[in-house]
Amino acid sequence: MAPITEDQVEKVRALVAAIPAGRVSTYGDLAEEAELSSPRIVAWIMRTDSSDLPWHRVIPASGRPAPHLATRQLERLRTEGVLALDGRVALREYRHRFR
């Protein structure tokens, strides 16, 4: 992976902060909007620099949170009105579009 710049980190952080309550975005959506080459870059940024952000609004394209986060993430989303069926968020219903 190419070195990640501070500008890229700040762009992803701003995008995550812009996801409204009751909506979600995928790592791929964020990568595309931030003009990054891979959703994995977004995942790395989220893993290292997101404790002050609404991290729970970022999910994989499958709609299923990572197993180690699923309970806490789905609980936080539920408090915002985002419901999951069998542990999966319906992206058609809750996906935030940046454009």
From TrEMBL:
Highest taxon in the source lineage: Bacteria
A biological-process GO annotation: methylation
Domain Methylated-DNA-[protein]-cysteine S-methyltransferase DNA binding, chain residue ranges per copy: 10-82
Listed GO MF terms: methyltransferase activity
Record has Signal as a keyword: no
Claim: Nucleotide-binding is one of the keywords in the record: no
Pfam families, per the entry: DNA_binding_1 (PF01035)
Protein name (record): DNA methyltransferase
Organism: Mycolicibacterium diernhoferi
